[in-house]
Amino acid sequence: MAAIRAFVALEIPAATRLRIAALADSLRPRLPSIRWLAPETIHLTLRFLGDCTPEVLERLEPRLAAAAEVAPAADVRVAGLGLFPERGARACCGSGRS
């Protein structure tokens, strides 16, 4: 089966997504090579997982759901922008491992 480019993310409120989309619209002319997300798909990525098999994701999903159930709510302030590397680029998870 084909790998799925996966990440762990949180949904954000619609009003915040629309504000981010407006910012993206203002940046789009200066950054034409970037593939921008549709406003309804804007999210807060907690961890980029890279290319995963469906089997790995099936094992991971119930564990993430269980962790989400016990995690306390948090207030989040949007203060920056980011993007994923190009497909095929080596992912850097910040763990110090190669």
Short description:
The protein is α+β, with helices and mostly antiparallel strands and 98 residues long. It is 32% helix and 18% strand.
Overview of the molecule:
With 98 residues, this protein is α+β, with helices and mostly antiparallel strands. It is built from 2 helices and 2 strands. The protein has helices spanning 14-27, 54-70, and strands spanning 4-11, 43-52. The protein has a two-stranded antiparallel sheet with strand order 1-2. The protein starts with a strand and ends in a 28-residue tail after the last helix. Mean pLDDT is 82; it is low at 91-98.
* Beta strands, count: 2
Work out the helicity level. 25-40%
End-to-end gap: 25 Å
Number of helical segments with 4 or more residues? 2
C-alpha geometry: flat
| Main sheet overview | 2 strands, antiparallel
What's the pLDDT, averaged over the residues?
82
What's the order of the H and E elements?
EHEH
- Give the uncertain stretches in residue-range form: 91-98
Gyration radius, in Å: 16 Å
Quaternary organisation = single chain
The spatial strand order of the largest sheet comes to 1-2
Strand content: 15-25%
Helices and strands: which structural class? Answer: alpha+beta
